[in-house]
Design goal:
Layout lengths: L5 E4 L3 E10 L2 E6 L6 E7 L2 E7 L1 H18 L2 H15 L1
Helix pairs in contact: 1-2
Length: 89
């Protein structure tokens, strides 16, 4: 079973959830090219899209991988590792 999450960005179309970054914030990328990245925050006014560079997005994913490894969440780690390889390598 897959827990894929998608959002519609007003200018860039469909975004795919890469991983949570911190409480209430998630990293998303454009669905087809996976070249543009956004940190999406949930606010009382709705969703806020903050563009981030590819290197910053990579560091966020790698930090999440380290956290999952420390917490012993093997299944989540393996799934995010696949996304990391497909997106950044």
């Amino acid at each position: 079973m897959s827990n894929e999450t998608y959002l519609s960005h007003p200018n860039f179309g469909l975004l795919y959830s890469v991983c949570p970054v911190e409480s209430g914030r998630e990293l998303y990328t454009t669905l087809y090219a996976q070249r543009l990245f956004f940190v999406v925050s949930h606010s009382p006014d709705g969703l806020e899209f903050e563009p981030v560079g590819r290197s910053d997005a990579r560091m966020m994913v790698e930090a999440r991988l380290r956290l999952l490894r420390r917490l012993g969440r093997g299944a989540e780690y393996d799934q995010l590792q696949k996304v990391h390889k497909q997106t950044f390598l």
